[in-house]
Structures are given as C-alpha cells and as structure tokens.
Design a protein that fits this description.
With about 400 residues, this protein is an all-alpha fold. The chain is built from 16 helices and two strands. The chain has one domain: MFS general substrate transporter like domains (Growth Hormone, Chain: A, Up-down Bundle). About 80% of the residues lie in helices and about 0% in strands. It has a two-stranded antiparallel ribbon with strand order 1-2. The chain is globular.
Length: about 400
C-alpha cells in the first residue's frame, strides 16, 4: 500500500462541491420515502404475493447485502485515483432499476404474480448493488472534495434540510399510498422515487473531483492482505465488526413488523403510509436531539441506549393487538434506525484513521454477515415456528452487542 503525494483542493471547487452534495442530500431525502426499504418495499412485496420467506430474502438483499457487497467493490474502487464515474454509475443504476420496478407494477395483471416476483427481486438487487457500489466512491469523494473547515457546516446544514424535507416527503408518500389501490399506488410511488433520485443525481454530475485519492492498493489480494493487517494491528476493529454484526440486525426488524401488521392485524396500504410517517418522525426527532446535544453525548451512551430501545421495540411488537399500538413500534424503530446509522458512522471515524476510511468502508462489509443471514433465517423461523421465535432470536443478538460495545469503549 502506498500513498500519493499531498495535493491541495481549491476553495472554489470545495464550494461548488458543497452545493452539489447538498443538492443531492436534499433530493435524496425527498426520494427515500417513496422507496422506503422498511415499509413501502416490503408492503408492496407482500401485496404482490410475497411470503415471510420473500420478505426475508428482500431484507437480506437491501439492508445487509448492500454493505456486505462493499467488501468486494472496495478493492477495485479504492485503487482508482478518481471515483466520480463510479459514483454516477451506481446512482444511475438505482434510478433505472426503481423506474423499471414502477413500470412493471403499473402494468402487471392479476395472473402475473409469479413472474412479477422474479422481476421485483431482480430490480431490487440491482437497486441495492448500485447503492453499495456508489457508497464506496461517495465516502472517498466527500472526504477529499470539501475543505476541512467546510465539512462540519455541510453535515449540520444537511441534517437540518433533510429533517424538514423528509417529513414533507413522508406525508406526501402517505397520501399517494392512500389515494389509489394496489398496484397503481405502488407504481406511482416508485416512479416518483425514481424521478427524485434522477434529480438528486444532478448534484453528483456537477462535482469537481480535483484530487486523486491518497490510498493505493495493488489488486484484490493486496486489499485482503491489508485488511488482515488492519485487523491485527487495530484491536478495536474486530469488536467494531462484532458490533455491526449484532446490533446491525436492528435495521432489518421493521420489514417483518410490516408483515406482522398485514398477517395479524389486517394492515392495508393506508396503514403502510402511517407506518412510514411514524418511522420518519422517530428518525427526525432523534437526529435533531443528537445534533443539539452532540457535544455532551458520548457514543457509548447512544450505543447502550439503542440496545435497550431495540429490545423494547421487539417486545412491544408482540404486545400490539391493534394497528394504533403498532404505529409506536415504527416510531421507536425510526429512533433505532437513526441512532444505529449515526453511531456506526461516528464510531467508524473513531476506529479508523484519516487516510484509510475508504478501506475501512470495505472492511466493515465483513461486519454484515449476520445482517445478511438473519433476515433469511427469520423468514424461515416465522414460517415454521411463528413470530415469537423471530422476536426471541432478535432480542438474543441485540443483547450480545452489549459485549462488543463494552470492548470498543469509545472515547468521544
């Protein structure tokens, strides 16, 4: 592994990139709710004839598989000096796949369920892999395309803008779901999501990637060699991967709550919109609280707190006997989802160094083995043993994460 000579980013390019990243973040926040992976996609899959096994496979692809795939994309992408073209390839493949999915749902007929399910899984896989491919490039570009003094301003501005936009988007998505019946409502959702993703991609087209990446790794074998070396030298890294493996399953819980609502409580499309709205309220509320109290909050407190909330969310699901009760599960789920992403990225920055973050983004893909396997096992468990067994397994792994959090022992 060798590093390129130090380079300088011009203030003009930094400012241009600042607005480009902000444009993308704002439009992405609007698009996300129309293609939400926790509520909209699983609800569409169930109404298209999907079972608990299908929900498990889809969740494994979308939530665990995307990060696991980074382990394989990172060796090649990390070795490229400029990554904008890979970022655009990833985001445009997501646009095309979600628009294609909307078109298929719109034109499907009553007898088309079997082959439609196959196409749904194909385009969902393309959508997931495109995001994984783009994310490795995004992490590298954002680190070198904004001046250091601009980064904090960018992240805080992005947080405020996204918080307001995502609430408006969730409300509009709820109205679209309730306005039409299946499959037209989901077709409109995906076509709208694809359109806003396309608009969001304009922010990446205008980026000016002036600097070549610092990190150079010669080939895939060298990447895995560097990965083994980092695992040995950085004692916190294996525990960080253990944390992602155990607490990471929290983000795969809500799709199964959608299944629970539809199978046990007769939830319809309007309820799916409410699930989404409550989840978004939870996400925005905790994001704003963390942003306000960022200087006083240690990651350890957030990590342990998220374990408690995860267990409570699971137990509350089993206690929910009507849809009104289930809405609060999604409210807590939004908090858990947001806290996990905030803490995971923050802890990753603490565990990694300044020059190896793209490398660590790939290494942490190895930490998503359990989040890939857990939804698959859960779909089978629900089918054979019932929903209680799934909740029990979820609680077991959530409590296991306490050990890894203790061993990481975050300083900040």
């Amino acid at each position: 592994m060798k590093k390129a000579p130090a380079q300088t980013l011009s203030p003009e390019s930094s400012q241009r990139n600042f607005y480009g990243f902000l444009w993308h973040a704002s439009l992405l926040a609007f698009a996300k709710n129309f293609i939400d992976v926790d509520t909209v996609l699983p609800a569409m899959l169930i109404e298209s004839g999907g079972t608990s096994m299908h929900v498990g496979i889809m969740t494994a692809i979308l939530l665990g598989g995307t990060r696991f795939a980074q382990l394989f994309f990172a060796p090649y992408i990390s070795n490229q000096p400029f990554k904008k073209k890979f970022l655009l390839l990833g985001i445009n493949s997501r646009v095309l796949s979600i628009v294609a999915l909307g078109g298929i749902i719109f034109f499907m007929q009553a007898g088309d369920a079997k082959w439609v399910l196959w196409l749904i899984f194909f385009f969902i896989s393309v959508f997931a892999l495109g995001g994984s491919f783009a994310n490795v490039s995004y992490m590298d570009i954002i680190g070198k395309s904004l001046l250091e003094e601009k980064r904090k301003s960018f992240f805080s501005t992005r947080q405020v803008l996204s918080g307001g936009i995502v609430l408006v988007s969730a409300y509009l998505a709820k109205q679209v779901l309730a306005a039409e019946s299946y499959p037209v409502n989901y077709a409109y959702m995906f076509l709208a999501g694809g359109f806003f993703l396309l608009l969001a991609s304009i922010g990446f087209w205008v980026l000016k990637e002036e600097l070549a990446s610092q990190l150079k790794i010669k080939g895939t074998l060298k990447f895995f060699s560097v990965m083994r070396k980092e695992m040995k030298e950085n004692k916190r890294l294996p525990h960080f991967i253990g944390f992602i493996n155990t607490q990471g399953i929290a983000v795969s819980f809500l799709p199964f709550v959608v299944l629970y609502g539809k199978d046990y409580l007769n939830a319809g499309s309007a309820s799916t919109g409410s699930f989404l709205l409550y989840k978004v309220i939870g996400m925005v509320a905790v994001s704003l609280l963390v942003a306000v109290g960022a200087k006083k909050m240690r990651y350890n407190y957030l990590l342990y707190g998220n374990v408690v909330l995860s267990v409570f969310m699971a137990v509350l699901t089993l206690l929910s006997k009507d849809l009104a009760s289930l809405y609060y599960v999604f409210l807590i789920g939004g908090v858990v989802f947001s806290l996990f992403n905030i803490t995971m990225n923050g802890v990753l920055l603490e565990v990694s160094g300044k020059e190896n973050r793209a490398l660590y983004a790939g290494i942490t893909g190895a930490g998503n083995i359990l989040p890939v396997l857990f939804p698959l096992l859960s779909g089978w468990l629900i089918d054979i043993l019932g929903f209680q067994s799934f909740v029990g397994l979820f609680v077991f792994f959530s409590l296991m994460s306490v050990y890894f959090i203790y061993k990481i022992d975050c300083d900040k």
